[in-house]
Protein 1
Amino acid sequence: VVELPDGERHLELNEGLAVHSVYRPDTVLTGNVWDGYLIEPFSVRDEPPGRIAILGNGAGTTARAYAKYFPEARIDGVEIDGELHDIGKRYFDLRERPQLKLYTEDARPFLRRIDARYDAIFVDAYRQPYIPFYLATREFFELVRDRLAPGGVVIVNAGHPEGSDDLEQVLGRTLAEVFPTVLRDPIESTNTLLVATEAPA
């Protein structure tokens, strides 16, 4: 955890090559890729998602923003490393509440096990050079599709080196094998959000 002079905190993992969560003392907005999860569902849905799974919850940046702007949303925050939940609570103002449940699990077994249907599933588990291959396969995206409610949407954060869209293209092609609609939002120079759905977008 790195704290800046103005009180902003960053969670840096993977040898400090990537920021995985951001906390600002005066706002839940980050000016970064996490803000995109607040708006991308509206490219498919007229209403905010009522039930969400965040696969790769980190220290809870997206969960905090949803608690502020869409407090009725029920969120399952899934993180393979439970220590990040503790760090989120200590340094990133992550608070468990009735609408937020935290799970320390690998995303794919979690989806296999959970008996739930989600309006939105956010996949935020890729950051080069660490790409969990089993979360980037057709079979994984079929499992994601099967856990979506009608009209649901999956939003994938494809973090990549600046100027490179190789990962985004590969993930987009794999998503297109499962979902009839795949959109891309190059939200910043090192992150593209891929939006996939069976619904019109």
Note: The first strand starts at residue 2 and ends at 3.
Protein 2
Amino acid sequence: MTTISVMGATGRTGGSIAQRLLARDLHVRALARRDARLCPLAAQGAEALAGDGADAAYLTRAFR
């Protein structure tokens, strides 16, 4: 299964992209800084992954 990672998934543009992908039943990995803001996307089926975009280990997991 292909996973599409969306950085800034809780923002205006990233959120819109994540919503559209989820509506097409695609596997979405929603990325943002805070877990709490990712909860609505996780409830819709996205894989939520919170972390710091400057952290190499986080980015490695996010785009694996």
Note: The mean pLDDT is 95.
